[in-house]
From TrEMBL:
Residues 1-58 form the HTH lysR-type domain. This is Transcriptional regulator. Transmembrane segments: none annotated. SUPFAM superfamilies: Periplasmic binding protein-like II, Winged helix' DNA-binding domain. Keywords: DNA-binding, Transcription, Transcription regulation. Pfam families: HTH_1, LysR_substrate. InterPro entries: LysR_HTH_N, LysR_subst-bd, WH-like_DNA-bd_sf, WH_DNA-bd_sf. GO terms for molecular function: DNA-binding transcription factor activity; transcription cis-regulatory region binding. It comes from Skermanella aerolata. Belongs to the LysR transcriptional regulatory family.
């Protein structure tokens, strides 16, 4: 089984497109198609369903992807051990929208300046979806939210036996109150019965929903961005939930108030069986240990 074929297969699976995969791999599309077909012939099963230009993994492809990723990661780790080199190649990072907006812009620019040979692919999503992506080898690592004890649902959707976590940030989670809403001391003081939040897999949403249930019943209005959440709050018909760092970036409507739900950890998670020089470099930048020497030290 050719390692290059496995790399091409994983890239097509990630991009869901031969055209996009060929751009990432710097190969012509016909070569990518031929190599995928050769791997399918070798395995004796179709790995992709072809729907026009979209490539979707078959049941066999979904089953094969984790093994292909483990083989490629192990080879990269073995090469690094015997011949340490600077980080290079594709690195797939998942992140919450809030973290991407408030924490990552400067850090990603610093990472690219330090390691220009790394092609970083960013995927936005909720904590639960990002964690599943790491477990399924669709992502190399992910930045997720996990509430501290006593703040809400502790379940971040990850298996501690398979995932390693690194603490990187702390967010101050807020309830944003509409204009002219009185200050509150508890959910019992709320005068609206709707919570504006992101998708169900969002940890911040779970914390806010559990908190709000301490007062009168509330329904959740699911929106696709924090700008939409704040706009809903501005109408006066809902409360919203978001980190302080995100609210600080936005144009806050006059009269809005906030109530602090408390601190929430942001964790960088990866599979325990998958660690690479790129991950070490990325973690170093996130935690401000971003000298070139630090990566080699962490690998030693």
């Amino acid at each position: 089984m050719d390692l290059s074929d496995l790399h091409i297969f994983r890239t097509v699976a990630t991009e869901c497109s031969v055209t996009r995969a060929s751009q990432t791999l710097a190969r012509v599309p016909s070569n990518v198609t031929t190599r995928v077909q050769r791997l399918e012939q070798d395995l004796g099963v179709p790995l992709f369903s072809r729907d026009g230009k979209r490539m979707t993994l078959t049941r066999e492809g979904l089953a094969f992807l984790p093994y292909a990723s483990r083989i490629l990661d192990l080879v990269a780790e073995a090469r690094q051990v015997v011949n340490p080199t600077e980080p290079s190649g594709l690195f797939r990072v998942g992140t919450m929208e809030s973290t991407a907006a408030s924490r990552l812009p400067d850090l990603l620019a610093r990472f690219h300046a330090l390691w220009p040979s790394v092609s970083l692919q960013l995927t936005l999503g909720a904590t639960r979806d990002l964690t599943q992506g790491v477990l399924a080898h669709r992502l190399d690592c992910a930045l997720i939210a996990r509430p501290m004890k006593g703040l809400g649902d502790e379940e971040a959707g990850f298996d501690p036996d398979q995932l390693q976590t690194e603490h990187v940030f702390v967010e101050n989670l807020l309830i944003v109150l509409p204009p002219d809403h009185p200050e509150i001391l508890s959910p019992a003081d709320l005068r609206v019965d709707t919570l504006a939040a992101l998708e169900p897999g969002c940890t911040y949403r779970r914390i806010a929903e559990k908190w709000a249930r301490g007062g009168k019943p509330v329904r959740t209005l699911e929106l696709n961005s924090y700008h939409a959440v704040l706009a809903s709050v501005a109408t006066g018909n809902s409360i919203g939930v978001m980190p302080q760092s995100v609210l600080d970036l936005m144009q806050r409507p006059d009269g809005t108030k906030t109530y602090q739900l408390g601190p929430v950890d942001t964790l960088l998670v990866r599979r325990k069986d998958s660690r690479s020089p790129i991950f070490n470099a990325f973690l170093d930048v996130l935690t401000k240990r971003h000298s070139r020497g630090s990566v080699a030290e962490r690998d030693s």
